[in-house]
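Let us practice reading a record.
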Amino acid sequence: MFLWVRDLAKAAQLYARLLGLEIQEEERYGHLHIFELGHGTSLILDSNGMDNIPVPETGPVLFKLSTRDIDAAYRQAQELGFQITYGIVRYPQVSFFNIRDADGNIITISQDH
């Protein structure tokens, strides 16, 4: 999964906190920061050439992250400063909400029931 970011250090701190990970300096490769999430999945933050690119006002959901507690995840996202673009929707099988970071990246957070 790729996210384009303007401030790599700030974005790495934000996503590390969201994902409950620690920043590892060996995960930094110039304009890239790579979080290994397990099972062959990585989150790659890329700041290359983003200085003069305007932040998009809207956009699609880029990917989904899972949680075991949708309400706690919602509170955490708010505390971290993410914009809630779509509040919690609850269905018998799944609950979800969407967040947007300062760079305009939109992510769905979901809990399977």
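A brief commentary: The chain has two helices and eight strands.
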